[in-house]
Write the structure tokens for this entry.
Amino acid sequence: MKEKVNLFWFRRDLRFEDNIGLAHALKADFPVVPIFIFDKNILDQLEDKSDRRVDFIHQVLHQLNLNLKKHNSILKTYYGDPLAIFQELEKEFEIQQIYCNRDYEPYAIKRDKSIYESLKQKDIEFKAFKDQVIFDKKDILKKDETPYTVYSYFAKKWKEKLKNPDLKPAEIHFNQFKKIDLEEIISLDQLGFQPTEMVFKQPTLDANIINEYDQHRDFPALEQTTQLGIHLRFGTISIRKCVAFAREHNEVWLSELIWREFFMQILYHFPHVAKRAFKSKYDNIPWRNNIDDFEKWRNGMTGYPIVDAGMRQLNQTGFMHNRVRMIVASFLCKHLLIDWRWGEAYLAQKLDDYDLAANNGNWQWAAGTGCDAAPYFRVFNPYTQTERFDKNHEYIKQWVPEYKSKDYPAPMVEHKFARERAISTYKNALNPGNS
């Protein structure tokens, strides 16, 4: 006789604290078997087998497994196609319900729908909950029931709708986990990956940084950002905990958390943005897409110190300061006239905190192709940005040690020329009758 159980499927919610889907699973009628699936459809696309994100996830899962050991249970881990994994689990257990938290990315929606349809035929319920956002896919809509496409209006409605119960943490009761003898989680080697220099540390909300976030966030040399991007990406910290802390400590950081949710809503309601411009007319821009230029940008050899510092920081650490992300993105799209999708794909490979919605939203913002109302002729001046945010060149000197030496390359393109070329190219593409 197979034992009747419920499964909880960890995904972008790698924590016990305030995990809504997990809380619901543990309140149900059957013992809970927690699982994590290394989705081969995602992992097989990663060319670098020393990917820090895979190592990060693996370390977090190891910690979860050790915590479960204290309650005489384990985290069962798998590598493969999720639907096939569930079919295998059905041979081991009499599964009653599968619990998880919702994911809003196009691949995840398609995957979950196929799993839901498969399980429905076997009378197994698939229950997904809102957890990684404060407001779900259709919670924030205009009066005509259509989604907001302007951040300021979205943020206003978001703040109006927010009430204290929205931030109440879910309680977790460990006694409902199925008792299973301890076993190790699947190894990195079994996944085809290798350890990296990544070291997982439990995320903390640092009042010293967040209280002054609005004053210091734009200065890359200060290292005064929260460093919580990767934790929000993989759910090692609760968004409710972050929002509650932001309301108490800093309105500007709260606005950043709302931006995160805004871009998730855009991706959910307008999934075409994953491949194309939010505004379709911008798909007509004739990008230069010079591969040599892209290589110089990618390797931090453009001759623009603030751009090169950002790209080298990214390549060496998997992190880039947010202000610098805007500068390097604008430079690629406007100065070099290289398709924003090239830059988006490169950062998707390199960023430890890569999130499709935020990465896509910010790249389209920089390229002027997204839902931002700013006109296409916004072109960041790297020199002005340096003067404002790295006046003493501390950040530049940290990442570009040969700066101001004969070994540092000359600017690959002159700023005034590049700006005028970009504006002209955009203008002619958007108004072909006037060119």
